[in-house]
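Tip: read the tokens left to right.
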């Protein structure tokens, strides 16, 4: 990696399609957008964002509606709505196509963006996620844990520390998140044949998605590759250096001659 690449990071709010969205931006070069998982935010990508900036990428880390610093909005959560938000972010803030790296819920958002606006997606990395209930680990320990007092207390503490909606709003966001992840996603995997972007599917060997499901996902993708690491659902945080190196390796392979580091955008 080139340690001489600039590491200046701008963090703050940007207005995107009427929604006040918090994001971090830094680095120079081709755009990479990191999409966090449920109940998390930009901090979950700290190690990978740094590795990608050093490798010569312009890294964008937005926080979705009702997550971390980004305020909630009226109405239920849904992957389709979040994908629409991301399309608006790519159009307005990034200003063109980008590599999308999604973990957990963020991977669903990335896939939906690739299906609805393929012109905005160069390459995809999808980490630790099923795309319909056939790929969900039976008797998911994660869902059971999320409803435990231990998890609720931890998530509430993290949310209250940064949310502009205030501590009293956490039960609303928690209820909307649980409703979404218990009902969605239910994507027909045959639709993945429409995704032309080269795609790396990555999961842990003790993840929330079955290995058979990830193999089927890769088989539907025109340019799908699969990697399995020793770990659970939180791979970006469990294996930060390994995941960062994989991202750099895969995304650098897509750098075209004209995509060498240059003037930052956004």
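Filled-in amino acids:
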């Amino acid at each position: 990696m080139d340690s001489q690449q600039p590491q200046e990071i701008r963090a703050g709010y940007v207005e995107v399609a009427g929604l006040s969205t918090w994001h971090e931006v830094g680095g120079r070069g081709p755009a990479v957008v990191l999409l966090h998982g449920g109940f998390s935010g930009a901090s979950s990508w700290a190690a990978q964002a740094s590795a990608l900036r050093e490798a010569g990428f312009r890294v964008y880390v937005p926080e979705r509606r009702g997550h971390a610093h980004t305020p909630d909005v009226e109405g239920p959560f849904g992957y389709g709505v979040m994908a629409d938000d991301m399309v608006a972010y790519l159009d307005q803030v990034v200003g063109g196509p980008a590599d999308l790296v999604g973990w957990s819920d963020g991977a669903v958002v990335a896939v939906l963006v690739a299906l609805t606006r393929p012109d905005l997606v160069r390459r995809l990395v999808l980490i630790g996620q099923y795309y319909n209930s056939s790929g969900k680990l039976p008797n998911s320990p994660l869902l059971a844990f999320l409803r435990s007092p231990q998890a609720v207390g931890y998530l509430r503490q993290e949310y209250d520390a940064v949310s502009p909606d205030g501590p009293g709003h956490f039960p609303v966001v928690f209820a909307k998140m649980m409703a979404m992840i218990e009902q969605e996603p239910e994507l027909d995997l045959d639709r993945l044949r429409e995704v032309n972007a080269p795609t790396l599917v990555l999961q842990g060997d003790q993840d929330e998605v079955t290995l058979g499901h990830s193999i089927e996902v890769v088989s539907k993708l025109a340019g799908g590759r699969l990697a399995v690491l020793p770990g659970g659902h939180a791979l970006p945080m469990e294996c930060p250096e390994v995941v960062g190196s994989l991202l750099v390796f895969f995304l650098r392979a897509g750098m075209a001659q004209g995509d060498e580091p240059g003037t930052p955008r956004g």
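The two ends are 23 Å apart (CA to CA). The chain has one domain: 9-259.
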